[in-house]
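I have been asked to look over a protein record a colleague put together. What it holds is a sequence and that sequence's fold in token form. Please read both lines and tell me whether the tokens look consistent with the sequence. I do not need a full report, just your reasoning and any doubts. This is what I was given:
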Amino acid sequence: MLSGVLLGFAPGSAIGVGRFGYGLVLPLMQADLGLTLAQAGLVGSANTGGYLLGALVSHRVLGRVGYRRGVYAALFLQAATVLALWLGPTYGLLLGLRLAQGVLGALVFVGGAALLLASGARATAMGLYFGGMGAGLVLSTLALPLSDGWREAWGLLGLAALAMALVAALAAPGLREPPPRRREEGGRLGTLAPTLVVYALYGAGYIGYMTFVSSGLGAPLGPFWVALGVGAVLTGVAWGPVIDRLGGAASLRLVLLVLAASSLAPLLAAAPLVSALLFGVSFLGVITALTTLFRERLPAGEWARAMGLSTAAFATGQALGPALSGLAGDLFGGVGAALWAASGLLAAAFLLAFVPLREARP
């Protein structure tokens, strides 16, 4: 469990700070640089595209250089890309840095999860690992008011990413390399194809909510995002024992149900901090349940590849989610409709999670 806590600072650095930090700093950048919405969106898309690319190549890259070595190299390199934004790069270089951070962040996320699975971590430890993203988000939210402009903000976030990477390095001695994939084990990942579609729909709905909730929120943003981040930190404690008891498939449905309910507009309007806390504690619970499902259904040699492909499915959903939710908002009444569309995508993921999985042939 200690390895899960310590290694959780890796996705905290790469995702919680390195990735989510862009949305926090963006208003300052737009005000100072005069970025159009299209330019700002393209920078976000560059990071998302890099994340998808990193997820697709993670199994091959990390398998070649070694998972532990590759994860820590990517972890410190992505922190350097965040810190480099403090220098105020040109727009073209800004795109390149965010693309690189996306690729490296995916290698950290996928590789770290694979290392923990290979090291025998159960659901609680996996939840603590994923919950590190919430710690990074909270740290980013609290650090931003200390800055005096977007460059200083990136400097603080870069230092935070580096500090979290150093803490994550303490987990290295206790991690074991994932076992190599054996030829006779091939083909079993195809039995989980419906689950990968569920994961893509979840990615689309989750990012749709995260994209438009600030615009639709009738409450202060700071406390909301802190509550969401605190909820994410509690993922392992809240969901770990439940997932270990129910198993991957049943717990995946349960977490998706809570997540979809927490995203509903009436709850957001009536009790925004409750919505944020429930959403935060559940959106990473989905990933925790999925890794448990991989452990139950797949041989050990397939776990690392499954993490890479599932993360690619998730990234695909993330790329489409804001556009789909935004289109619904344009057609049916603004931000409120966009949030309902995000909830609809999460509900679709919940319903599809009931599709029976076929058994792998021996």
